[in-house]
Amino acid sequence: MTDVDLQKLIAEMLDNLRAERERLEAAIDSLVKLQHDSPLDQIEHKRGRKSMSQDERTAVSKRMRRYWDSRKKKSEGSYGTTGSDD
After folding, report:
1. Are 52 and 60 in contact (CB under 8 A)?
2. What's the half-sphere exposure (Cβ side, CA atoms, 13 Å) at 83?
3. Alpha-carbon torsion 14, 20, 23, 25, what sign?
4. pTM assigned to the model
5. One-letter-per-residue 3-state SS of 5-52
6. How many CA atoms lie within 13 A of 71 on its CB side?
7. ∠ CA(59), CA(52), CA(42), 5° rounding?
8. Nearest CA among 75, 56, 54 for reference residue 64
9. Span 14-48, pLDDT tens digits
10. How many whole angstroms separate alpha carbon 24 and alpha carbon 55?
């Protein structure tokens, strides 16, 4: 193979590679556009705990206080009657 033939082959290969690169870039651009236009991007993903207002915290506090008071009353009755008087 002569120098001229080698140069032509290299030029042809470069042209083919450049054309393929342009096709790939067009495909990548299309995919990126689809990704950004996707409805999945519009969905907000919430993580962590929901923050509570002061009123909600007060309501939870009262509800839990009643819950633990009732548990305490139930347990006081069962611990005092073990059957042995030491």
Report:
1. yes
2. 0
3. negative
4. 0.41
5. HHHHHHHHHHHHHHHHHHHHHHHHHHHHHHHHHCHHHHCCCCCCCCCC
6. 6
7. 140
8. 56
9. 999 999 999 999 999 999 888 887 666 566 667 78
10. 57
